[in-house]
UniProtKB/TrEMBL annotation:
InterPro entries: 23SrRNA_methyltr_KL (IPR017244), DNA_methylase_N6_adenine_CS (IPR002052), RlmKL-like_Mtase (IPR000241), RlmKL-like_Mtase_CS (IPR053943), RlmL_1st (IPR054170), SAM-dep_methyl-trfase (IPR019614), SAM-dependent_MTases_sf (IPR029063), THUMP_dom (IPR004114). One of its GO terms (cellular component) is cytoplasm. Its EC number is 2.1.1.173, 2.1.1.264. It is found in: Cytoplasm. Specifically methylates the guanine in position 2445 (m2G2445) and the guanine in position 2069 (m7G2069) of 23S rRNA. HAMAP family: 23SrRNA_methyltr_KL. It comes from the Bacteria. Keywords: Cytoplasm, Methyltransferase, RNA-binding, rRNA processing, S-adenosyl-L-methionine, Transferase. This is Ribosomal RNA large subunit methyltransferase K/L. It comes from Acinetobacter chinensis. Residues 49-167 form the THUMP domain. It holds the Pfam family Methyltrans_SAM. Transmembrane segments: none annotated.
Length: 734
């Protein structure tokens, strides 16, 4: 009768949050009776069990076997933990475990609340092991911190110190294929855990997409799972120098793994897509795929430099798709608002391209994950090194087909509002007159009323399905109580005519702004939301500032720029929230450059770009943002631009700008400097809102200057032809 194989105790460690998934995985390898602890599973099993975990576990960090426990004596009060560790090490014969000619290293882990200098304590453990060898065999092994043949894992506890042999050697997340790195990569075992949680293999997808692939970890781990490739197949382990190593058993397990991979590799694979806005990341992905041994399936993987705004037609209809990605959250994008915009933009693209398909997306904060439009969402919290990450899983909601508010609006039935009959009639008449145009041109944001009647001195702007109502401050000769009553009547009429409730109407008083009050916050409510204009999604803020982030009267100019920008280098001076730059970028501009004094507006600009899937702060600098005075910026540079837009303020005395800017006084020198940066066949568009503005005669004599104001004023501003003036300026033909 064959004797039963001896059972030993094994610890399998993992990142926090992975314990349950790891238990499922190693139970699938035949291991039973597992005890679960934070960051560690413990079981009694055969050496074969430990070897199989080393070979096949995609989630584990290390496989350890305890070989010596040093019980502590608490008859004395003061503790010297370093000396306790030394005593435990010297009181065991380490020559039973490995030979003196082998190199070794110590990894010390200290339980919480134990105070000790870990560097010194590690050194004392090493001294104990070396002294033990000297007593036993008269020879001492050498230390090798980088590539030791034997790694000893020591757990310093409150009642005992446990000395383990690390069978894995290097951490098991190191598969050996990551030759090229990018910023903030996810660990291989965490990527595998996400794929396991998402049940990648069971979903049997036709398409696998990582739109922000970094160094390709998700693509490679997916390939390994789908081709039944054991993560330990080509790496070295810590048991090779161990006296108890069963080489024949290990080679048998390795041969079985190689055969399984060979068989699975012959089966058809899904179509993989690996995109990144950084060409270096795309190169790293390809090189790592080759290093992982998947060069033979490269024809199944489309790797391209693409932003989110530049996705191809996936022809995914009727196919099962699986999307998994690790967006560049955190410091690489800056503030939390930009991160939120990135996730909003990604979510919109997924809804449009992959409705009802499954996705797993990593976020640095729950708030980012919450904006993803998933049905039946699940969340998994993990630790990527010392950083917590949150993974959102779910089926992607289909995109809702949105139509302009006026497309659905019909004249409302309501009781007459005494004292506001004329205003009610005028607002309703304006909306009926604008409806056909807004629906035909797909206009979501427009002006409905602009002080048409002397007694109702307000502007009513529609942003999506919300209203921004500005009360022009009444003259001091008007009784304040009478003005307040009149304004309240106007609000009641606005709600009645539009059918919108109080929570959809935002109110401001617009008075002449002077000095630094021009850009100060009006509120801290921060009701920001997204509106659509042409191809662009734009963040507007109806509460915090006097202006909303989107000048409605320049809509036609922005759409004109979008139509002309393809392949051109675009410059936007006094860029505000850079909506003109955004339209140019989405129109296919070769590059965009936005210049403004306000960091607040430039950060808002970057959010707009990120929201639309465009990359900012990128090494290739396709889209650049400069916080600078436009005069100084023009003077210091030499780059040439094919298309320039300048929409300066009427007057400015910003604290960042020494002196004042007056558009009538200073536009001559501003335009001359800008024209020096315009290419020979280029176009400069200039506009401003100063009603008394007159174009300088010298500018008209030097360049081809054509006023195009009428072409840039939309139907909603035709009642106020003086809302702005605009010119098209070009170099005269040679």
């Amino acid at each position: 009768m064959n004797a039963k194989p001896r059972l030993s105790t094994y610890w399998v460690t993992c990142a926090d949050g992975l314990e349950t998934l790891l238990q499922e995985e190693i139970e699938g390898l035949g291991v039973q009776n597992i005890e679960k602890f934070p960051g560690r599973l413990v079981f009694k099993g055969k050496l074969e069990d430990a070897y199989r975990i080393c070979m096949w576990s995609r989630l584990a960090s290390r496989v350890l076997t305890p070989i010596h426990v040093h019980e502590l004596d608490f008859t004395h009060d003061a503790r010297d933990v370093a000396e306790e560790l030394y005593e435990g090490a010297i009181n065991f014969d380490w020559s039973l475990i490995f030979a003196p000619q082998s190199t070794f290293a110590i990894r010390l882990h200290v339980e919480r609340d134990i105070k000790v200098n870990t560097q010194f304590a590690t050194l004392r453990v090493k001294d104990g092991v070396v002294d033990s060898f000297m007593e036993a065999v008269g020879k001492r092994p050498s230390i090798d911190i980088k590539q030791p043949e034997i790694t000893l894992y020591v757990l310093a506890g409150k009642t005992a110190h446990t000395y383990c042999l690390d069978l894995s050697g290097d951490s098991l997340h190191k598969r050996g294929y990551r030759h090229y790195m990018t910023d903030a990569p996810i660990k291989e075992n965490l990527a595998a855990a996400i794929l396991q949680k998402a049940k990648l293999k069971e979903r049997n997808p036709d398409i696998i997409l990582d739109p922000m692939c970094g160094s390709g970890t998700f693509i490679i781990e997916s390939l390994m799972i789908l081709t039944d490739r054991a993560p330990g197949l080509v790496r070295r382990f810590g048991f090779n120098g161990w006296n108890g190593h069963d080489h024949e058993l290990w080679m048998s397990i390795k041969g079985e793994a190689a055969e399984r991979h060979k068989t699975a590799l012959a089966q058809p694979l899904p179509q993989f897509y690996a995109f990144d806005a950084d060409w270096e990341a795309v190169k790293a992905t390809k090189q790592n795929i080759i290093a992982a041994g998947f060069e033979s399936v490269l024809d199944q993987i489309k790797m391209e430099e693409r932003t989110l705004a530049d996705w191809p037609d996936f022809k995914a209809e009727g196919k099962k798709s699986f999307i998994v990605t690790n967006p560049p959250y955190g410091e690489r994008l800056g503030d939390k608002a930009s991160n939120r915009s990135l996730y909003l933009g990604l979510s919109a693209l997924l809804q449009k391209n992959f409705p009802n398909q499954y996705a797993a997306v990593i976020a640095a904060a729950v708030e980012q994950a919450d904006v993803l439009a998933f049905n039946n969402p699940q969340i998994l919290r993990l630790m990527n090194g010392k950083l917590p990450i949150y993974v959102r899983f779910g089926d992607i909601k289909p995109a809702t087909v949105s139509r302009p508010f006026l497309a659905e609006w019909q004249p409302q039935q309501f009781e007459a509002i005494e004292g506001a009959e004329d205003f009610t009639n005028r607002l309703q008449k304006n909306m009926q007159a604008l409806k056909k145009w807004a629906v035909k041109e797909n206009i979501y944001c427009l002006r409905l009323y602009d002080a048409d009647l002397p007694d109702f001195n307000v502007a009513v702007d529609l942003y999506g399905d919300r209203l921004h109502v500005q009360e022009y401050a009444p003259p001091k000769t008007i009784d304040p109580e009478k003005a307040k009553k009149r304004f309240n009547l106007a609000l009641a009429a606005i709600r009645a005519v539009t059918g919108l409730g109080r929570d959809a109407i935002f109110i401001k008083t617009r008075a002449r702004q002077e000095g630094k009050t021009q850009y100060e916050k009006q509120s801290t409510a921060s009701k920001r939301f997204i509106v659509q204009e042409g191809k662009a999604k734009i963040l507007v803020n109806l509460t915090d500032y006097l202006d909303t982030g989107l000048f409605l009267d320049h809509r036609q100019m922005r759409l004109r720029i979008a139509a002309e920008a393809k392949g051109k280098h675009f410059l936007n001076l006094y860029s505000y929230t850079s909506t003109a730059s955004l339209h140019a970028a989405l129109g296919g501009a070769a590059s965009t450059t936005s210049v403004d004094l306000s960091n607040t507006y430039l950060n808002w600009s970057k959010e707009n770009f990120v929201l639309n899937g465009l990359t900012v702060d990128h090494p290739d600098e396709q889209h650049q943002f400069f916080s600078s005075d436009c005069f100084e910026w023009l003077k210091e540079g030499h780059e040439q631009y094919d298309l320039i837009f300048i929409d300066p303020p009427t007057f400015s005395n910003s604290k960042k700008f020494y002196g004042t800017f007056d558009v009538q006084r200073d536009h001559n020198s501003l335009l001359k400097r800008a024209m020096n940066r315009l290419t020979t066949g280029g176009t400069l568009y200039f506009s401003n809102n100063y009603r008394g503005f007159e174009m300088d005669e010298e500018v008209q004599a030097m360049y081809d200057v054509v006023e195009i104001s009428n072409e840039t004023i939309g139907q909603d501003f035709k009642r106020n032809q003086k809302i702005h003036r605009a010119w098209k300026i070009q170099h005269p033909p040679v």
